[in-house]
Amino acid sequence: MGYASLRACVDDLERHGHLIRIDAPVSAQLEIAEIQRRVFAAGGPALYFSRVQGSAFPMLGNVFGTLPRAHFVFRDAIESVRRLVELKVDPSRGWKKPLRYWSAPWMALTMLPTRVAASRAPVLARQTTISRLPQLVCWPDDGGAFITLPQVYSEDPDSQGPMHANLGMYRIQLSGGCYEQDREIGLHYQIHRGIGVHHTAALRRGERLKVNVFVGGPPAMTLAAVMPLPEGLTELLFAGALGGRRIRLCKPGNDRSALSIHADADFCIQGYVETGHTLPEGPFGDHFGYYSLAHEFPVLTVERVFHREDAIWPFTVVGRPPQEDTSFGALIHELTGPVIPTVVHGVRAVNAVDAAGVHPLLLAIGSERYTPFAEVQRPEELLTQANAILGQGQMSLAKYLLIACDSNDATLDIHDVGSFFRHVLERFDPRRDLHFQTQTTIDTLDYSGGAMNQGSKLVIAARGKVQRALPTSLPAGLRLPDGFSEPSVCLPGVLALRGPEYRRDESGYDDSIRRFCAQLDTSHPINAFPLVVICDDAEFCARTLDNFVWVTFTRSNPAVDVDGIAAVTRHKHWGCAGSVVIDARRKPWHAPPLVEDPKVTARVDELARRGGPLYGII
Question: What letter does residue 123 receive in the DSSP assignment?
Fold first, then answer.
């Protein structure tokens, strides 16, 4: 039941035709990453690279590249984990359907981690150095090599032990920058992450924070590291349940003062974060589709690097969605989606839209129970639910939240993004249903606010009957103000326009969007489109749904970049009688988008030719 090691997973995937071995020598400098991206895009198999130039360790990628393969990897326990989630949602199911939940007590036992002696821990078999590890560089302007599937383990300095541990997937920079080779590596963690609680406690105590970075091991640990679990429920418990076996922990030399190590990991980097020691970390191509730039982050001082005899280095590639982490997100939603109504009452479902970089755009379906007798239906309870959503863990990093009422359309699906937009745009009232939060926190990787972690939020709530028909083609006689061109329909009711290049005046502000709105009134035919997006390339924005959500919601900061035709502020509430206009142009402070190296692309093309290891796959 489950895998005892990553090697067992590799053998199982290969035996069932889910993995291919690439024995040609390949470089971890850009080449392996581009191979993985292209195989993922083709829906291809997991990839085992046996000959990585400059490293003695094989690399493994694309294990979670498709949702069916992720289901295959966790097939022994995923149904049992679903049942545990169902019991959390409604404990009464246990006695209502005892046959379905009879295994729950046994599952609970497998969740508890166990101790083993150092002599029984495969991960402690060998030692190496940071520079001898695979040096994966994914994008041309990355600041160095990074671990892209790290499992970063820490314990609460105030309550030590594995039951007070945090396991998170935080970015680890292995080389480049100002780091002392083989002695220092970068530890990048963002706001609302569990390790921050531990680091805060260590700073308060004036102590170093001990940190171990695991790489590899049973795949359940990798998934556990990205699970949005509540405080107090350690990821080790979840990994035990999902992996179908207790997580084995050890201490090197059986040193009781040492931080616990995952005995079955492939690698463990053992170290500590010194109080007050930071260095620039990055740049790094991230899941927004841009580079996150270099910023000061904590430094992990490396003490030792352990590895198994048969160690495998797993990796993924981060970039503009969809990427492999899209499958992670889909699997997480399957497992945790049913819990949402128990956390935020009245909310039926929430979707962090992957194509928009996850946090920039949330879609939600809620309910209205306040005044069902009211003749005029307007968002009421939906606004309470929206505030609750924006107060929950990582959902609090959302920038745009669109929330609709379940009673207006029983078939509404948060995963059908195009239909959801249509539903909202048909019903919302832009004079009333736009609700801003200003001067607040957004995702660390989101540069639309102009400063790290700083930006704004916009809730768009929709309830009631259809208010307008949404156009699907350009109206006759559409004339635009000077400087605006290329009108392109993205979705029903959504129009993209090419605007002038963003230029700041002496006040530090570009007022071209304000002037655009001021030149139009409510009689202009553009108002048939309730949403207008001003961007740098309207044809690109309108070409696909993914392009629309990526451009619109990663390149705008609501409080600054949302304007409208016939706008008015009344009692400090902003709204507009005509189209809502979003400025999604590139701004000078935005991070650059990710672009592949054409020379690397040409090398990968050679591997895909007849007779090459990737022939017929990409």
Answer: G
What is the residue whose two structure tokens read 């545990």?
84
Give the mean pLDDT of 52-66.
96
| 129-144 mean pLDDT | 97
Tell me how far CA of residue 587 lies from CA of 450, 574, 591, in angstroms: 9, 24, 9
For the chain, the maximum distance between any two Cα atoms, rounded to a whole number of angstroms, is 79
Query: Of the candidates 330, 337, 339, which has an alpha carbon nearest to the alpha carbon of residue 358?
Result: 330
Find the Cα–Cα–Cα–Cα dihedral 408, 412, 417, 423, rounded to 10°: -20
Are 158 and 267 within one domain?
yes
Give yes or no: residues 65 and 198 share one domain. yes
d(CA 346, CA 365): 9
The span from the CA of 297 to the CA of 196, in Å, is 12
Ramachandran angles phi, psi of 290, nearest 5°: -130, 175
What is the token pair recorded at 344? 């935020």
Where in the sequence is the domain holding 542, given as residue range(s)? Answer: 485-583
Give a three-class secondary structure readout of 294-357: CEEEEEEEEEEEEECCCCCEEECCCCCCCCHHHHHHHHHHHHHHHHHHHHCCCCCEEEECHHHC
Contact partners, residue 245, CB within 8 Å, separation at least 6: 1, 2, 4, 110, 218
Neighbour-count burial of 160, counting CB atoms closer than 10 A to its CB (0-12 exposed, 13-18 middle, 19+ buried) = middle
Q: What are phi and psi of 308, to 5 degrees?
A: -70, 165
Distance in angstroms (rounded) separating the CA atoms of residues 189 and 299: 11
Domain co-membership, 173 together with 295: yes
Residue 583: what are its φ and ψ, rounded to 5°?
A: -85, 100
184-188 vs 46-49, strand pairing mode? unpaired
Q: How far apart are CA 24 and CA 519, in angstroms?
A: 62
- Residue 526 backbone zone (phi > 0: left; psi -120 to 50: alpha; other: beta): alpha
The rounded mean pLDDT for the chain is 90
Point out the least confidently predicted range of 150-164, 198-212, 441-455.
441-455
**Together in a domain, 445 and 420:** yes
175 part of a folded domain: yes
Confidence band of 232 (pLDDT split at 50, 70, 90)? low
CA distance 78 to 71: 7
313 bridge partner residues: 59
Report how many domains make up the chain.
Answer: 3
Cross-strand pairs, 472: none
Q: pTM of the entire structure?
A: 0.90
Neighbouring C-beta atoms of residue 483, cutoff 10 Å:
13
Indicate which CATH number applies to the domain containing 260: 2.30.110.10
